[in-house]
Amino acid sequence: DPNELKKIVSHAKEYGYVFPSSEIYDGLSATYDYGQYGAELKQNIRQYWWKAMVQMNENIVGIDASIFMHPTTWKASGHVDAFNDPMIDNKDSKKRYRADVLIEEHVAKIDAKINKEIEKAAGKFGDSFDEAQFRATNPRVLQNQEKIDAINARFKEDIEKENFEDLKLLIEELEISDPVSGSKNWTEVRQFNLMFSTELGSLADGASKIYLRPETAQGIFVNYLNVQKTGRMKLPFGIAQTGKAFRNEIIARQFIFRMREFEQMEMQFFIKPGTELEWYEIWKNKRMNWHKSLGLGEENYRFHDHLNLAHYANAACDIEFNFPMGFKELEGIHSRTDFDLKAHEEYSGKKLQYFDNEMEQSYVPYVVETSVGLDRLFLAILATAYTEETLEDGSERTVLKLPVQLAPVKAAVLPLINKDGLPEKAREIMDDLKFSVNVQYDGKDAIGRRYRRQDAIGTPFCITVDHQTLEDGTVTIRERDSMEQRRVAASEVSSIIEKAVDL
Ligand code: ATP
């Protein structure tokens, strides 16, 4: 359901999860900022992954390599060539790229028009303005949206059929001019590199061109011997890392699913040559089970085995997730052979061999990689959690049914009213809880509204302090998903929450 994603995007913005980046300057395309709850959720996901990979596996350790690497790294890895060539050598790719760019620009123009209409209306109606309602009913917005949908539909069909002739006509029909030369000439195509580059050092000193890493993996490969030696690691062992990666994606869309700056959580598992397919199967299954343990629904996952393998792999698959846009890649698992380490040996002139005590022989290990996008996982979790419910009394609520371990705020402490010593008591409970979990104090508005607000944020527990609390030391604890409330001793609250959170 395409509307599903729109709802999630606007909920994420309204409740401090994800904001368009540089919004006061009308945003920067396909870049997003994580807000106060988004940053917490992201952190919790990262920690959950780190715990499963590093803490729970004796033979896996974590590192944090830098984003900038020696430029030769990207020659060795094949990125400098592989990311360049298709654009230069293949005529159809050139056309496809050109079509992608032109269409994206055109859609962005229509998008901007829609946003202007919305801004104007919001100015007019002020607080009572409901963007969703406006989108759904305003003829000008609808007309523009229809145009975008039509472009997207035709664009998708044409790309799938590789029908570039048709695309050309479409572009002409839309009267979009060439963004580079201003003409409608298709023959000369700008060279395009998916890696972002910048200069190291000042220009006067003869600056050298360096790249922002397009994957975190290479930081692990170049450090593998450092870690192996200093950690006295024996094969098989793994090195894990989370961090930012940058790709100048031709089409970056669908919210945080495909961005130009994103975060990866990768693990490279170093093994004896010849055992790679065995380990590939093991990691395939481990990773799938890990995803399923999040409780987003087993039916929402599937494997997609790659038949066309990348230059570095001898087996590869994706774990796909059922996003609001359909099944799409969430994680990649690759048997990368000794491609990367061998290439780094060749380009650096340094030996990257491991001495196997049992075999009494040195060799370059093989590698199985698991690589998941943190932002994509965030989207999978947020989209699955987002629920609109009609309650028994006919009222409606929007609730984020986030896995309890991952929820940004674990509990909210609410004084029923703001007098009679209830706020003080509530603060006392909060001060007690904040050492172990992230808690929030909320004393504004009627209690029902406060519950709704916490539902929208995804807070699993609300602790309400009322007059009875002062008499017998009990509070009510309200559970987010069932909305059930029960009275418990205030002193029990922390252990109830910690148990649910799995601490
Ligand atoms: P895709 O086919 O979707 O472009 P990929 O196969 O290029 O992805 P990998 O190079 O295998 O991706 O990277 C591993 C993971 O990093 C992906 O499974 C995905 O979750 C994440 N990822 C890759 N590119 C992006 C991006 N532009 N924005 C957000 N996450 C990304």
Q: Mind telling me the CATH superfamily name of the largest domain?
A: Bira Bifunctional Protein, Domain 2
> What's the tally of helices?
18
Q: State mean pLDDT (0 to 100 scale).
A: 86
Largest sheet: 7 strands, mixed
Low-pLDDT sequence parts: 82-91, 175-192
- The total beta strand count reads 20
| Strand numbers in spatial order across the main sheet | 3-6-7-13-10-9-8
What share of the residues does DSSP label as strand, in percent? 15-25%
Report the C-alpha radius of gyration, rounded.
26 Å
> Which secondary-structure class do the elements indicate?
alpha+beta
* Global shape: globular
Proportion of helical residues: 40-55%
Q: How far is it from the N-terminal to the C-terminal residue, by CA? A: 36 Å
- How does CATH name the architecture of the largest domain? 2-Layer Sandwich
Subcellular location: Cytoplasm
Domain Aminoacyl-transfer RNA synthetases class-II family profile: 174-415
Organism: Reichenbachiella agarivorans
Catalytic activity: tRNA(Gly) + glycine + ATP = glycyl-tRNA(Gly) + AMP + diphosphate
Explain what the structure shows:
Keywords: Aminoacyl-tRNA synthetase, ATP-binding, Cytoplasm, Ligase, Nucleotide-binding, Protein biosynthesis. Its main location: cytoplasm. With 503 residues, this protein is an alpha+beta fold. The chain has three domains: 267 residues, BirA Bifunctional Protein, domain 2, CATH 3.30.930.10; 89 residues; 93 residues, Anticodon-binding domain (Rossmann fold, 3-Layer(aba) Sandwich), CATH 3.40.50. Helices cover 42% and strands 22% of the residues. The protein has 18 helices and 20 strands. The strands form six sheets. A seven-stranded mixed β-sheet has the order 3-6-7-13-10-9-8. Strands 17-16-18-19-20 form a five-stranded mixed β-sheet, sandwiched between helices. The chain is globular, with a radius of gyration of 26 Å. The relative contact order is 0.11. The chain binds adenosine-5'-triphosphate.
